[in-house]
Fold this protein.
Amino acid sequence: MISRKSKYGLIAVLHLARYHGRGARLISEIAQAENLPRKFLEAILLELRNAGFLDSKKGRGGGYVLARAPEDLRVGDMIRVLDGPLAPLRCASASSPVLCTDCKDPQVCSVRALMMDTRDAISEVLDKTTVADLVARADRMSLRGAKALSFEI
């Protein structure tokens, strides 16, 4: 399960993607538009900036922008920065596994093997999904919602 931190980070990045190429957005604007807690969002955006996903500008016209085009930003990479490894158990992590102290033999542990398969499946989806894909998905969902509303009227 991803944390609230990652969820808010993805929501904020999606917001910035909608403004890509049209100038910077203030934290207060993002927080208000997306109904996110401002202080928590500050820390999240700073972390994403330090990892190279965002750029920030100070002064008039300042705020946050995407550091790269939305199609060049992968969701899995951002979640790893904000939450760490994607594995459901630490022993199943691809990048920094920590073996369980109660495991007799990790090489034949069926629970670890299952969690590694789970990690691989999660990673496959998140690593092939870009921020541009998220924008397109949100647009399709909004369109479907608008069509549903038009039938109700």
About this structure: The mean pLDDT is 89. The first strand starts at residue 54 and ends at 57. Strands lie at 54-57, 63-66.
